[in-house]
């Protein structure tokens, strides 16, 4: 195999980048899997939690967009944090993303597996062995698609997102038509009011709400494979895609949370657990049309598995290209122009974690531990990007309200919020979750040390 260091440049446009950003967060998956958790935590204030965390995540988006002006890079936060604060901090920004992506292979493939079994073998949904085996099959299929090339991946993503959007739109219309006049929860301004939150309630809701939005930054990890702006001041396709993806996601999550609350009672949401969309569809549509909600969850989940494999493989490739990880991971396939070695690595690690997690007592416990540990790692690497942006562009504070807010203040406040959430979460986690969340980051010292050793020995 060739070891060329170039990805397929200019392969993606703004539209494809937007689709990648939306699919990266897996809208239907996020709603289906995490709604019960956030409603159990803060009730109807879930709507406000989603809205305000969207504003916080928009601050991180601004940081990524402005930092991308330094240089487009396949490991966005790693390169930019390293440029501003030094290679060690940059390494851990990239490592945080790698670890989160690995754990996500468990939290994403399991819902795809359970939704598949709901249709094919309903009696096997709570059987961890069946769920694990089905999840492994999905992971393998998606890995093959991603390895074949970025264009194949983008085409598949467009089809999946279009089908998912059609189903979700049907749920939204059906919900307002049938339950708009007699909702399970009467809409109120209290849902959005910042004065409805205590600091504890806000932090508790944010722990889950942050996870809703994670994944949009895959567009920035594909920036080396997207088209650049015609003029130097013009945003590249990756930045445009990330911006429009975030706008769409904030609106989507708010609307869907309202739909959940007007259709389902608190008891129904709790019983639905990780199948909230299916519970909504059961109240809106007769069989077999209610299974469309299950299909939307499968499509959304498969889409986000694809984007996370893309994000991990591009990150590992670029860090290996810079010799922060072993150079073998920078190997590019001569025909498909994809980092096939790094792609195989996340497939293998995902398979190992899936079958290891099958020894946990239930599917629900597997999901809870992986999702919470991912939330910690999201806060870690995204906050570093926010701080890097604020520091790098601190001179913008003297260039008017817009520049000061966009380049410095909003990213800085978003980063501080991420740190607060991460610190708040530690005492609320059990031992396994803390081991995954914090331990996953600390393991990064091993490859960092080995990289320095290789550099000293000239290997």
From TrEMBL:
It holds the Pfam family AA_permease_2. The keyword Metal-binding does not apply. It is found in: Cell membrane. It comes from the Bacteria. It is a multi-pass membrane protein. The chain crosses the membrane at residues 42-67, 88-110, 130-146, 158-177, 189-214, 242-264, 338-359, 371-393, 405-425, 431-450. Its main location: membrane. Gene3D superfamilies: Amino acid/polyamine transporter I. InterPro entries: AA/rel_permease1, APC_superfamily. Keywords: Cell membrane, Membrane, Transmembrane, Transmembrane helix. This is Amino acid permease. The lineage of its organism: Bacteria, Pseudomonadati, Pseudomonadota, Betaproteobacteria, Burkholderiales.
